[in-house]
Amino acid sequence: MSIENAPRAGGFQPLSTALPDMAAWVRHFLGCEIPVLANTADALEAMRSNEDDVDANLIGEMVADDPLMTLKVLAYAATHRPARLVTDVETVTAAVVLMGISPFFGAFGVQPTVEDWLADRPDALAGLNDVLRRAHRASRFALAFAIHRQDHDAALIHEAALLHDFAEMLLWAHAPDLALTIQRAQAADPTLRSNAIQQSTLNVELFDLQQALMKAWTLPELLIRISDDRHAEHPTVQNVVLAIRLARHTAHGWDNAAIPDDVADIAQLLNLSTAATQAMLRDLDH
Questions:
Q1: In whole angstroms, what is the distance from residue 191 CA to residue 201 CA?
Q2: Cβ–Cβ under 8 Å, residues 220 and 90
Q3: Contact 40, 69 (CB under 8 A)
Q4: For residue 276, which of 36, 87, 107, 272 is within the disulfide window of CB 3.0 to 4.6 Å?
Q5: Which sequence spans correspond to the domains of the chain?
Q6: Separation of alpha carbons 251 and 134, rounded Å
Q7: Contact 115, 38 (CB under 8 A)
Q8: What is the pLDDT of residues 4-41, one digit of tens each?
Q9: Separation between Cα atoms, residue 236 and residue 224, nearest integer Å
Q10: What is the pLDDT of residues 130-144, one digit of tens each?
Q11: 60: nearest Cα among 14, 18, 95
Q12: At the fourth CATH level, which superfamily is domain 121-284?
């Protein structure tokens, strides 16, 4: 998404070859439009036609299911923050409150959708949908863990889990051939480390690209911090990391060999027995 102008619908020209380095990738994504989910685009237009009956909470709830629109709103709010504002805008609802309803609709016109962009690439759309499903499940796990822990930053933890793999989402949307190259390499060799194949295919690792983009968009400092897996010793970060891990390992069912370790770590985080943790997780996933 261009951070100099209000988001706008536009054409789609996918990348077919990797950019040379981190700076080039960051520049590319800073200037790119971010497509959103079709359901989000439809809901936005329905709200626009009833603007007088819409408030920030309704918009926040609508956006909360779409990590791409969440990213788009947070990036826009962060880069258009009034100079008088000294605190970060950490949630979509807070961003809309700051902007105002009419200015929000003015800034976010009719949105391009991933379904339209990838209409002739069902393989890439399927790959993106896999990441989106994982993000939704991870955010649900993360929010439940945070509420159990009585963490005051529960909303931000939910947001961090939802956005945890946004660089991979952007790759599927903007460079589907490269995303498929990575996916196929990992399918052919399950022992292949994701950061190694990302580096060899893209000339960057997606985690590093994501952190660089969050900083370039000046996203909330706390969001950046709790999205940094390298600091998993902090309970808030661990909350997000364990939710992501569980969502990955249970993406195709609950028989993955890594799940008992996940459950043990989650039980420790939540100060629950293994049996109580297993019951909680099963309830959350239905």
A1: 17
A2: yes
A3: yes
A4: 272
A5: 36-112, 121-284
A6: 7
A7: yes
A8: 333 334 456 889 999 999 999 999 999 999 999 999 99
A9: 12
A10: 999 999 999 999 999
A11: 95
A12: Hypothetical protein af1432 (1.10.3210.10)
